[in-house]
Amino acid sequence: MDTLERKELFRSVATVDALQPAFQELLQDKPALEAFLSEVLGDFASNPGKLSDEAERRYLGCAFLLAGISASQASYPAVLKIITAPEFGANVSREDWLSSEISRLLGIISADDAVDGILEFLFKESTAQHIAEQLLLTLSCRWIARRDTDAAFLATVKRILAELPKSAVEFEVAMAIVINAVAVGGDQLKSQVFAFYKEHEKVLADRFAEKNLQSFFDLGKQRIKNMLVGNYMGGYGILPTELDRMINYASMAEAEEEPTTLKTLPPITRDRPKIGRNDPCPCGSGKKYKHCCGK
Q1: Distance between CA atoms of residues 207 and 17, nearest Å
Q2: Residue 55: in which H helix or E strand, if any?
Q3: What is the percent of the chain where pLDDT is above 70?
Q4: What are the pLDDT digits (tens) for 168-200?
Q5: Which of the four, 21, 75, 168, 221, has the lowest number of CB atoms within 10 Å?
């Protein structure tokens, strides 16, 4: 398949059967794959305005998936530049596969010394909230995958608790920070987490009462970490499955979504069983855990 045919296919509303041979052809030819990723990702990094075109977003999605399956660390700088561009946050919604894939993709392809660079964008007030959330989850993915030690991730979370701009925090980001802080630090970070809650009470209180914060600590950091591990996707699976997830992500997410009417949940206690992906989120949002704090 020549370059023009591949571009036309990747930009189209294609099926798994149509895409699979083209993906396999690239994955079996490393030089061709590297050249493809360098050209496509470099083009989007230099011209983020292309993201306003739905067909171009499909094309970028194919490049993201190929970079993830091949664990292409050479693609990391361009991918980071693309996702942190204002045009990405403006054109790619939280519910889009491109957005949802960031943490898994960066967790795999990011350089060993990438944490400071990720934090730089996380701390920028101009970074879109759903992108900031994914950058935070990238750090969590690196820790769960043991790319970063407990001590290193603890130091990272301490920095986030202390330095994240108050105006840059909305509910989803704040909850992700709280959960990760409890998971890695437990009672060691208790005073900092409660101080963080007080600082961001306006965005947290309506959906997550302060009394429930103590319940997270009551569960213990290992059980909170287990929840994170249970939602961690890890590496990429077989090609047809990953293609199907990319193509049908929006419809699958919509089918699984529950009404977001707020409801009050009883406080979490020590003897509560592990929270499953389809259980109500303990934050009280009324969503399933996988669509809320477990994202």
Answers
A1: 43
A2: helix 54-69
A3: 84
A4: 678 989 999 999 999 999 999 999 999 999 998
A5: 21
For 247, the token pair is: 């193509």
What is the distance in angstroms between the CA of the first residue and the CA of the last residue of the chain? 37
Angle, helices 76-83/30-46, rounded to nearest 10 degrees: 30
Q: What is the pLDDT, as a whole number, of residue 145?
A: 94
Q: Report whether pLDDT(279) > 70.
A: no
CB-based contact 215:267 (threshold 8 Å): yes
CA distances from 61 to 14, 82, 134, 235, 272 (A): 12, 12, 16, 17, 39
Contact residues for 6 (Cβ-Cβ < 8 A; gap 6+):
22, 36
Show the tokens assigned to 134: 């994914």
pLDDT of residue 263: 31
Secondary structure of residue 280 in the 3-state scheme: strand
